[in-house]
Write a structure and sequence with these properties.
Layout lengths: L9 E10 L4 H12 L8 H14 L3 E3 L2 E2 L2 E3 L7 E11 L9 E9 L4 H14 L3 H9 L3 H13 L1
Parallel strand pairs: 1-5, 3-6, 4-6
Antiparallel strand pairs: 2-3, 5-6
């Protein structure tokens, strides 16, 4: 059986480095715009609404400067993952109280729950490593971000 990889659900155009965001609401709005660059996302507004509603259930700011905003949404035809590194860390109600700089953003149809949970767990595991977070912070290009994730998944 083929191992499902994070990078299977990412596209270079969905990776933004040094994005300027003012706050959590602004970030979620821009994340929806980025996700909607994918052909897998049919409705930017619905995607934003669902990401926002998920945040209301509890923060996706998991700590160490990382958040994983995610939502199951009718706006997604297929699991789609964006990556954003913000220019200036923002307050995101993280579990550890730290501001957030790195974001993995997911939109997924309800039918892909198993894959969605596997990928979510895998990202959570990878970002525990400080060296990996530092590599993401120091990457210069979208292509480099994809390569870093791919290398880390194979390790």
């Amino acid at each position: 059986m083929e191992l499902v990889k994070i990078t299977d659900f990412m596209e270079e155009k969905l990776i933004k480095l040094d994005l300027e965001v003012e706050n959590k609401k602004d970030a979620l709005n821009k994340f929806s715009e980025i996700l909607s660059l994918s052909n897998n996302i049919t409705d930017k507004e619905e995607c934003y609404k669902d990401l926002n509603e998920r945040e209301l259930l509890g923060t996706t700011g998991i700590g160490k400067g990382v958040a994983i905003p995610h939502a199951k949404t009718k706006a997604a035809n297929k699991l789609t993952i964006a990556f954003v590194r913000v220019k200036n860390p923002i307050e995101y109600e993280s579990l550890d109280g730290e501001k957030v700089k790195l974001f993995f953003i997911f939109a997924s149809p309800s039918s892909e729950s198993k894959i969605y949970l596997k990928i979510l767990a895998r990202i959570s595991r990878l970002i525990r490593e400080e060296s990996f977070r530092n590599k993401l912070i120091n990457a210069k290009t979208s292509k480099e971000i994809l390569e870093l994730i791919d290398i880390e998944e194979k390790a």
